[in-house]
Amino acid sequence: MSRRKHFADPPPELSGRFPPRQRLALGFPTLTAAPPPELLPTREDWTLRVFGLAAERTFTWADLLALPQSTLTLDIHCVTHWSKLDTVWTGVRTRDLLAALELSPQATHVMAHAHGDYSAALSLDDWRREDLLLAHSYAGEALEEKHGGPLRLVAPHRYFWKSVKWLEGLEFMDRDRPGYWEARGYHHRGDPWKSERWERD
Description:
The protein is mainly β. The protein is 7% helix and 32% strand. The strands form two sheets. Strands 1, 2, 5, 6, 9, 10 and 11 form a seven-stranded mixed β-sheet that branches. It has a five-stranded mixed β-sheet with strand order 4-3-12-7-8. It comes from Deinococcus proteolyticus (strain ATCC 35074 / DSM 20540 / JCM 6276 / NBRC 101906 / NCIMB 13154 / VKM Ac-1939 / CCM 2703 / MRP).
């Protein structure tokens, strides 16, 4: 099917919300580095392990829901040149999760690990932002597996490869470290407003 049916040029009145070289997604494209893991846990069986430069802890689904819940409306930007505006996510702000953890003073970065071999890192300063979310719902419904359910990271200020799907682990580190795509040449930061697609950019 033609890309013209899936994407459109940014409306002039909304152009300020689009980073350079981005187009408007008319649906919600699903792109992954690999197919979803065959045996994803159900919400009842899901856990999130915290480790590294933090007191080790494992969150259950009930633990996650006991934390403060937030609903955020966010614009998201994929490295493959599409943007989707006004997406609505519900979950736990990363800064609220941090408040429940005991971190080492040496911790500066967080590697988010998916079920499978996918990972991506952000700085701890990123994690303290108000608009980063561990999302379990999208548009008022439980997050679908194809979009990263049962839980994914949503980091709207970075290209969407940083928003790790099928989240299972958070590793606190004392330095930045390449994740799945960064090890293959993607930019370590991935700022869409600076077109940071490749490390050479």
